[in-house]
Amino acid sequence: MKLMSDIKNSLKSGSDRVDNTLILVEHKPVYTIGLRNKAYDDRELSSRLRGLGADFVATNRGGLITFHGLGQLVVYPILYLGSFNVNKSIRCYVRALETTIIDLCQSFEVNASVIDGLPGVWVDNDRKIAAIEIIPCGIADKTVTSLSNELKRNVTVEEVIPKFLHSFQNQFNSALIVAGSYGEEIEAPQFGDTYYVEAVLSLPYAEIKEPVVAYFDGSNNRSRVDYYGDLVQTIQRADLSDGGVNYKFAYMVDPKGNAQKVCFRINGTKEVPVSSQPLLPDLTAFKKSGTEICSDLFGLLPAKAVCTTGTIEGVYFVKSGHLVKLSEQQLIDCSWNEGDNGCDGGEDFRAYEYIMKANGLSTEDDYGHYLGVDGKCHDKSVKKTIHLKGFYNVTSGDTEALTTALYYEGPVTVAIDASHKSLSFYSSGVYYEPNCGNKPENLDHQVLAVGFGSLKGEKYWLIKNSWSTYWGNDGYVLMSQKENNCGVTTEPTFPIIADH
């Protein structure tokens, strides 16, 4: 209770000490008493209830007496609603929680619904299967039920938790970090302490079991979980082992999701079809593409800045044979007038327009390295290294045209549908998501196509992402070419280097 109170107060105060938090508990038998029980003597109640083999705890919540015990999954959401894509009203928040439970029940093939005026989730409009705190009990003409009762078998809390997390992520459009659990004998974490715990997450496509380190960092008063380095272990289900795709935990991201969630617009350039070639060799060597290995910064680099500089670096490499490291920070600081949004992202053609107006782009050494925040533009006082005279669109939906552009021109900026959790958890192998969109309105994230190839007979695009080396295959993904998976060939662009 103290932990929940501390988290709530920190969120209300705007402190960065904690993040939005879900606490999932299977309580040992306990009765909690609310503020409406003033007529009872706490000592008398405590004695009576403890005599039944349960603990007794007085709380500052409303309501009467509530029992929690083994077999119940109790979830304590401690959230700042402003950080989620839900209406900030309590009514809409409660409805979102109810929908989460309805989806959870559906995953067990139990049909559930809501009843107007009676918060909670019901089976057959008669049996309550989940309470949402408001009016959790005291409804005279209704009964309660459970998944075990409805399915006529024992359903454990351990079986329910992964399905709840999956439903919550989908409903609240969020990515969860599973921090593990602490035993009864372990005290609450203290700043600077390190706890070794084990987290288990089951997914539709893989089962993941990882030893992790959960710790409180005293230097910035922020709790974090380290899932990477030598601690990561992915266990793939046997029936999927021939698929060649592995998945791992995703890193911490904004609750609104991985993608920028911007609407990509047609950039106004003339579409210049690139002549198709009958046969081209595999192009999978990173260095030959003129791109550096992804940054290992923990967290997200702005996709627009990474893709734009990466494309220009690659095209310049193909043209000159020299690899330069251009300043992503310059694009973040200086392309606002073209409609970009600094660290919050933007679009490649806007960045190209800025570079042409600014008469070039500077190197990291001249302008400055990535800061992680929007800075003050000072492009007029630094030397420009690379100049552009325009940019091309590769013919939309044409696999051969994109292949040719990659081989003869170098890396190409592409937009993809990055809204699916399977991409967040990707580790290795050829990635194919059957639910991925490939229409312009589906595309919400920019990446860098740097090559192409074939693995076990399946053709793929070699894609460099901006989510650091902790994600995917050292920051890269092999994106299937089948059916224009996730829209790789929908809006490809590359710049034209000026002769200076």
TrEMBL record:
The keyword Transmembrane helix does not apply. It comes from the Eukaryota. InterPro entries: aa-tRNA-synth_II/BPL/LPL, BPL_LPL_catalytic, Octanoyltransferase_CS, Papain-like_cys_pep_sf, Pept_asp_AS, Peptidase_C1A_C, Peptidase_C1A_papain-like. GO terms for molecular function: cysteine-type peptidase activity; lipoyl(octanoyl) transferase activity. The keyword Zinc-finger does not apply. Residues 16-213 form the BPL/LPL catalytic domain. It holds the Pfam family LplA-B_cat. GO terms for biological process: protein lipoylation; proteolysis. This is BPL/LPL catalytic domain-containing protein.
